[in-house]
Q: What sequence folds into this?
């Protein structure tokens, strides 16, 4: 029975992991070997070099030139990485601050309309982006934000339903005695939030930061709608452009190298933060 | 209201005020505005013009639109139970903390970590007509399955959905760990086999988690965009037509390519209503079935 269970687990695990391994091995194969061979005859790391410098649909004529260290930072990949990180970091900072403030108000303070508004907050998680697309496009166009990165990070500074929900659940679990003690000592409400509750909520804050970072990293729909200048593209959008503008001629080796470049940081981040990550996923599944 | 309560209420509103603004500007306004635009002829470039129910009639008259709606709902109806079953089965398999189980859990979670754009690219590569999946099937005599053609694409997308159930699985594992061991022990003493223990203890005890995963799944399935868009817009899959066109992709192409913002808004409301109705239905049905511990 035990052996059987391990056999089933192993076969299934192979099926789940294989496509990712296939992406990885394809990404280092010489182009003519892509379809048949399982293990590449030689490791072609040049694929990565080429995937990083491929520019807007054609192989960059100055490919060899660009690879020199000084110009490396102007390759499309690095530009897109910088854009993605900029949006992600700004969004995470914004979400952490606003969502934790709102979550504090929902979890620890009494004010008129609180429970109703919390219900509304939770239901915002149910609204697909596509539903908001047209008015948001009009709004950001009116603000003159089209073709800038602002539509991607500015809304985060007002909080998101999911992160508020997650933090509220955590804040509710912090013993009332602790905050009462601080209040008796004359601490202001903001002081209690800042010096008592936030330090205690660090695991939840890390989880929220991680989730939002991954959300931004993976987001494709909003960048597709709001970004117009290839110099503003994020990695997810860049990968699509890499694929779609070659008239179907993008070699799969390069495509998989580019896909690996987008995937690897996420997987690495997961392995370093597994503890917080799994806890956060679990926390999100707990009932109110 | 005492003075303290007044101060508390003031602080509460103060703390929540950024979110109230954000909720208004980036959630409430877009939803209500798209309702208004859905009754208008609107191209962003000129102000909206009221046309009544025209856009909704237009949806009914346009086969591409209602095909996208039906396809989205059908796909959700098949994909949701399937991914629930898959994630619950995996969780049951990986629940016990045996040696090596952590490694297996990571293996099953890995696909859920891959960004959707990369999943889409990978999908097109492994399911290509002469890709690795068909090579493997070829060794057992199944030749040339057209995975990326209009006839098979929904099946391929289903396989992909099941492949990325890692999040739900992790939540289920945590839920299963919360089930009191005594229940299993006493059932075992009474002679209940493994299957009966799963059906009569595990599943009822994790029913709130099933509900949570189901609701999250509804939103993701009905609003899915990235993978169908990526696949459809790729030049290697020109024969696909609208076979991978869902409501969200249709909204995007009408709004962003054809600038039919009013019509796209009407589609947005169809999508919103679908989400609300399906979620409401699930929540209502679940009221009888879901068991919450410690709530009487």
A:
């Amino acid at each position: 029975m035990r052996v059987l269970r391990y056999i089933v687990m192993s076969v299934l695990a192979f099926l789940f992991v294989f496509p990712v391994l296939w992406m990885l091995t394809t990404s280092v194969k010489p182009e003519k070997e892509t379809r048949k061979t399982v293990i590449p005859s030689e490791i072609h790391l040049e694929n990565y070099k080429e995937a990083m410098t491929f520019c807007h649909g054609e192989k960059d004529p100055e490919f060899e030139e660009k690879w020199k260290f000084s110009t490396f930072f102007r390759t499309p990949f690095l530009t897109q990485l910088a854009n993605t990180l900029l949006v992600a970091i700004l969004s995470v900072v914004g979400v952490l601050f606003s969502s934790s403030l709102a979550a504090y108000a929902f979890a620890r303070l009494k004010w008129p309309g609180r429970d109703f508004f919390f219900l509304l907050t939770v239901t915002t998680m149910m609204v697909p982006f596509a539903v908001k697309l047209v008015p948001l496009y009009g709004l950001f166009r009116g603000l003159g934000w089209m073709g800038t990165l602002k539509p991607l990070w500015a809304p985060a500074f007002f909080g998101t339903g999911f992160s508020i929900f997650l933090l509220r659940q955590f804040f509710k679990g912090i013993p009332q005695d602790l905050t009462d003690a601080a209040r008796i000592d004359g601490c202001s409400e903001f002081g209690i939030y800042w010096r008592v509750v936030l330090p205690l909520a660090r695991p939840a804050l890390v989880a929220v930061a991680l989730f939002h970072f991954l959300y931004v990293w993976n987001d494709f729909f909003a960048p597709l709608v709001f970004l117009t200048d290839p110099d503003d593209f994020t990695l997810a959008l860049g990968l699509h452009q890499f694929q779609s503008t070659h008239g179907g001629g993008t070699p799969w080796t390069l495509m998989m190298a580019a896909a690996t470049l987008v995937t690897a940081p996420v997987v690495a981040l997961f392995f370093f933060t597994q503890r917080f990550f799994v806890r956060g996923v679990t926390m999100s599944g707990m009932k109110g | 209201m005492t003075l303290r309560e007044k101060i508390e209420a003031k602080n509460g509103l103060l703390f929540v005020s950024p979110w109230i603004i954000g909720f208004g500007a980036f959630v409430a306004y877009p939803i209500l505005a798209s309702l208004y635009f859905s009754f208008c002829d609107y191209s962003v470039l000129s102000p909206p013009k009221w046309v009544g129910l025209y856009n909704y009639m237009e949806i009914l008259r346009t086969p591409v639109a209602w095909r996208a709606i039906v396809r989205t709902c059908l796909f959700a109806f098949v994909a949701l139970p399937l991914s629930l079953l898959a994630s619950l089965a995996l969780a049951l398999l990986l629940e016990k903390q045996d040696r090596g189980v952590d490694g297996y859990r990571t293996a099953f979670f890995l696909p859920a970590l891959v960004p959707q754009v990369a999943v889409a690219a990978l999908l097109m590569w492994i399911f290509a007509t002469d890709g690795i999946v068909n090579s493997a099937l070829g060794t057992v005599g199944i030749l040339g399955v057209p995975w990326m053609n209009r006839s098979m694409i929904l099946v391929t997308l289903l396989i992909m959905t099941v492949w990325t159930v890692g999040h739900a699985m992790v939540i289920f594992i945590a839920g299963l760990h919360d089930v009191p061991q005594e229940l299993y022990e006493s059932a075992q003493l009474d002679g209940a086999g493994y299957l009966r223990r799963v059906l009569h203890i595990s599943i009822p005890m994790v029913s709130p988690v099933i509900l949570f995963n189901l609701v999250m799944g509804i939103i993701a399935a009905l609003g899915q965009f990235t993978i169908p868009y990526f696949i459809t817009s790729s030049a290697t899959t020109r024969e696909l037509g609208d076979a991978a066109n869902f409501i969200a992709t249709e909204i995007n192409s009408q709004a962003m390519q054809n600038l039919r913002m009013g019509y796209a808004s009407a589609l947005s409301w169809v999508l919103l209503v679908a989400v609300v109705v399906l979620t409401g239905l699930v929540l209502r049905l679940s009221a009888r079935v879901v068991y919450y511990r410690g709530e009487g």
Summary: The mean pLDDT of chain A is 87. Chain A has one domain: 76-284. Residues 76-284 of chain A form a domain with the MetI-like fold fold (CATH 1.10.3720.10).
